[in-house]
Specification:
The protein is of the alpha/beta class. It is elongated.
Length: 432
């Protein structure tokens, strides 16, 4: 049994600073909760001379990660560096040394999860990562602790607050993508380089990790079919609203036999869906189990405070076990190498928007191409868009169809003289 538990930090940016400050401020309540004193031993940063918004005890700050990793008084290492470079090396080294690790690093755990879990298992260490997905929303814990009796069928989630903020403003205010992105950057929701967010990579890391935990199947992030939101235009949101839908960037993982189809892309959701009402920087995850049914978790998905909540929940849980003399291992078990399926396995409804020549017979030509691909039209909306150029804008909704058939049809449509451009293709979730 331990009366004192040493905590070491790798990195101390905005999130790390909030975690450290909370750890120091709430030392008394945390002692009561865990049965042991949580003592801040070392904090490793790139530049220990830089001014910081927190006063640390003397001798705690260091510029050498080895001071954290090699200190025998450090029981729990908190990694808040991010990425799979130095952070990955440090986490592996900590686990190999038998230290328990708490990480907020979705990229690292999604890419190297099976390796890290095996390393932790071999060395009697715990690896916790609740903060890697959904900020303060409990998403990882339910999958591992509360739902293991279920056969999870599917996960649908909004797990990137930046893109959700942008899409909300495009839908509610009619902003262009560029204007909505600029505001997100001004407010600090988007990075100066927003690529990871707006092109879907951040969400792909997260859904790959969730799919592994839910299905016990390793899904590499690069196997997640990923599309971003750059191509969306204000009129897509107008059409969606008229049809009774909203547009969200969804991260989805589904069982298909022994395989897993994981995807990230903008999609039309019926307005009645719970996820359709998740706006701004909020995140939400729906987990569908065969016993528990569909569970929805929603809340602040990013930011220093929500992430601190998740990081410290893991720290406290490990500390409680150590104080009781128990081994705080938390093992999702080996992940099998299952088949990661492509979008060719998908069947749903589709929304298409295209710019066409404004002349009789164009719709008939489009219907012919779609029909030959076995794609049936459910609804059409045609509007005059440019009299001077003689073009019109055409939006249509299909009945359920195979993704492969729709892709073939779009390729053929782009070759028609009457079709100037196929501007958008969006999948419809909750489609019947």
């Amino acid at each position: 049994m331990a009366n004192e538990i040493g905590i070491g930090f790798l990195g101390m940016g905005n999130v790390g600073e909030k975690v450290v400050a909370t750890l120091l401020e709430r030392a008394g309540p945390f002692r009561e909760q865990t049965g042991a004193s949580l003592t801040l031993r070392r904090v490793a940063v790139k530049d220990p001379t830089r001014s910081r918004g927190i006063d640390l005890p003397a001798g705690v700050l260091t510029g050498d990660a080895g001071d954290v990793l090699d200190d025998p008084s450090v029981d729990v290492v908190v990694e808040v560096i991010g990425g799979d470079g130095d952070a990955g090396d440090y986490v592996r080294r900590a686990l190999a040394g038998g230290k328990h690790v708490v990480s907020a690093n979705k990229e690292l755990v999604s890419k190297a999860g099976p390796e890290l879990f095996a390393l932790a298992r071999t060395n009697g260490a715990a690896l916790r990562f609740e903060a890697s997905v959904g900020g303060g929303i409990p998403v990882i814990s339910p999958l591992l602790r509360d739902l293991p009796a279920n056969r999870v069928v599917a996960i649908r989630a909004i797990i990137n607050g930046t893109t959700n903020f942008i899409l909300t403003n495009m839908a509610q205010r009619g902003d262009s993508f560029e204007d909505a992105l600029a505001e997100a950057q001004d407010l600090g929701y988007a990075e100066p380089d927003p690529t990871n967010d707006v092109d879907g990579y951040d969400a792909a890391f997260k859904i790959a990790l969730m799919a592994g935990l839910a299905f016990g199947t390793y899904v590499p992030p690069e196997a997640v079919a990923t599309e971003g939101i750059r191509s969306l235009a204000p009129q897509d949101f107008e059409y969606a609203r008229e049809l009774g839908y909203v547009i969200k960037l969804l991260a989805i993982a589904e069982r298909h036999g022994d395989g897993v189809l994981a995807r990230v892309h903008p999609a039309l959701l019926p307005e009645s869906e719970p996820l359709a009402r998740v706006d701004g920087v909020q995140n939400a995850a729906q987990i569908q189990g065969d016993l528990a049914g569909t569970l929805t978790f929603q809340g602040a998905g990013a930011g220093a405070a929500p992430t601190t909540s998740a990081v410290l929940a893991d720290v406290l849980d490990i500390s409680r076990s150590l104080a009781e003399g128990a081994q705080p291992r938390w093992d999702p078990g080996p992940w099998r190498n299952g088949e990661a399926l492509g979008l060719g396995a998908l069947e749903t409804r589709y929304y298409l928007r295209m710019t066409v020549v404004d002349q009789p017979g164009v719709l008939a030509q489009i219907a012919r191409v779609l029909g030959e691909a076995k794609v049936s039209i459910a609804a059409v909306d045609q509007r005059e868009s440019d009299e001077e150029r003689g073009t019109a804008e055409l939006a249509l909704m299909t009945h359920r169809a195979r993704e492969l058939a729709v892709t073939v049809a779009i390729d053929t449509l782009r070759g028609l003289d009457e079709v100037i451009e196929v501007d958008a293709m969006l999948r419809v979730e909750g489609a019947t």
